[in-house]
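Tokens as discussed.
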């Protein structure tokens, strides 16, 4: 039952965030928008709660993990994103590229951690997650400038895995 309630609340908060404008309820929503949000959130909760809580794991409901998530994206991810943009622009202008596919072992245990790392790598210019070995949780990355044939995780994504462990594990 808690799965259904949490999914409903997350859906409702997302709906309210996306539809905020002008209205009678707190000056942001109309009564029609609120009732529509309740109905849609109930439908989403009935359909999606089994997907969101397959393993009955509630650790991502911890607010400290969400604060760490925001700090990760505002801090280390944004810095790496900026550096990668500059590096890719330099490589495009000069033509100095050495592309290749490399394998890294980030030593993350949860599916959420692996997914978050793979998405962070893919969002960073110059790298793209091509495949995931689900047995060992290894990632295969297309890298625009392969400098070593045996790269460490730090070569590809600096300290992303340490932050992701704080968030997802």
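Sequence:
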């Amino acid at each position: 039952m808690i799965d259904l309630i949490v999914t409903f609340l997350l859906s409702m908060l997302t709906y309210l965030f996306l539809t905020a404008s002008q209205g009678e309820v707190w000056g942001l929503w109309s009564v029609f928008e609120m009732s529509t949000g309740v109905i849609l959130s109930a439908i989403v909760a009935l359909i999606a709660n089994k997907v969101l809580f397959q393993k009955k794991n509630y650790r991502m409901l911890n607010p400290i993990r969400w604060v760490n998530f925001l700090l990760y994206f505002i801090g280390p991810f944004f810095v790496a994103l900026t550096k990668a943009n500059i590096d890719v622009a330099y490589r495009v202008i000069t033509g100095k590229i050495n592309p290749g596919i490399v394998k890294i072992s980030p030593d993350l245990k949860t599916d959420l951690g692996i997914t978050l790392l793979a998405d962070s790598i893919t969002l960073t210019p110059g790298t793209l997650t091509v495949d995931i070995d689900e047995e060992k949780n290894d990632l295969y990355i297309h890298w625009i400038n392969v400098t070593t044939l045996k790269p460490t995780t730090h070569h590809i994504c600096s300290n992303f895995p340490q932050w992701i462990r704080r968030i997802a594990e």
